[in-house]
Amino acid sequence: MSINSVSISNNIQGLRQSFTRDEYVSPAIFAHEMEEIFAKRWNFVGRAEQLTHIGDRLVVEVGNESILIVRNREGELRAYYNVCQHRGSQLCDKSGSGFGAAITCPYHSWSYSLEGKLVSAIHHDKESFDRDSISLTQVRVDEWQGNMFVCLNDDEESLHDWLEDLYSKPFDLDKFEMGKLKVAYTTVDEAKANWKVLVENYCECLHCSVVHPEFCEIVPVYGKGFNFQNDRFDSGVSLAPGMTAVSFKQNEGLPLLASMEDLDDYSVFGAYVYPNMLIDVNPTLVAVTAYIPRTPTHTTIITTYLFPAEAINNPAMDIMPAVEFNDLVNHQDIDVSERVQRGVASKSFKRAYHSEMEKYAQRFVKQYRQDITNS
Ligand code: FES
Ligand SMILES: [Fe+2]
User: Fold this and answer.
1) In terms of Cα–Cα distance, which of 4, 18, 6, 27 is closest to 298?
2) Which of 82, 105, 131, 136 to mutate to test the pocket of ligand 1 (most atoms within 8 A of CB)?
3) Is the separation of the CB atoms in 34 and 295 below 8 Å?
4) Which ligand has the minimum distance to the alpha carbon of residue 212?
5) pLDDT tens for residues 47-79?
6) What distance in angstroms lies between residue 94's CA and the mean position of ligand 1's atoms?
7) Can you list the domains of the chain with their CATH numbers?
8) Which one of 50, 65, 101, 230 is least enclosed by Cβ atoms within 10 Å?
9) Ligand lying nearest the CA atom of residue 110
10) Burial code of 324-337, b = ≥16 C-beta within 10 A, e = fewer?
């Protein structure tokens, strides 16, 4: 078997080929994906407001690497491999505030500035070795609309160019001014499913009438198996008449996002930002989700709920019915994805297929094949 095992050729008229069984379960293929996709492309890692003050730090996993992100004295983001240059100890375990302006290794206390320069080493005076030639290894970090991305590949195009060219057109969501929203709530889930199973599930709505009956009451077109609306040209999908929010509570009194007022209908928008980010725009919130692949059969899912500041700060406004509704939908998706993972593990399963109604999932397969085949 080649590592890129796409040679199973069961063509079925009217269907397109998705991933093979091996691509859902093989540790060798998973390792190849970490190198050829997650170590090369821009990965969504969190919100810039998680690093507000000088010295705040965020520890994230990108591919097989632990990455440390800090905010420097100029207020800029910096990212480094989370590895001490002395004898290789991992530097930081935890994200958070209050660490001050030095990054100190917990092994022999070598200490680095927020610019990654070695500034002190206990028991050694300044002249004992050339500190100036020792720095943490920097990686690229950038942000778009308050969303932070890390790229381990110096040859990759800029974040802006990557997002501009990406087939799912995330810049179309700029009108909702995500950058002005604030983090109100975060959930972390561990899914027993391959990251591609989760992405395919996100990219189609054939399952929605069966798996998400509550959501389909609010967004009727989802109940018909579509995640797009042919009579709209802005990629939005309309809520049912009388519905104002994707929430357990309608007319919940939360402020609408920028540009929502201008639409004819209360609407939802979504985008999958290859390889690891989902963006769900609702009338009153944006949910941004990071998929962090751990093993072929395990993915960590971090969903961050963003609202206008006035919705968070006003005690008369209750964001939780909307958060809890979205969390219900997330768990329905996790349950069905874990079911798929159990199924594709069977030796009897050869490969998955997509119909025309799963065209966005097929677009994901195409991007994946480009990355894997070009490697
Ligand atoms: S390994 Fe970090 S100070 Fe020694
Ligand atoms: Fe779903």
Assistant:
1) 27
2) 105
3) no
4) 2
5) 999 999 998 999 999 999 999 999 999 999 999
6) 17
7) 49-155 (2.102.10.10), 168-373 (3.90.380.10)
8) 230
9) 1
10) ebbbebbebbbebb
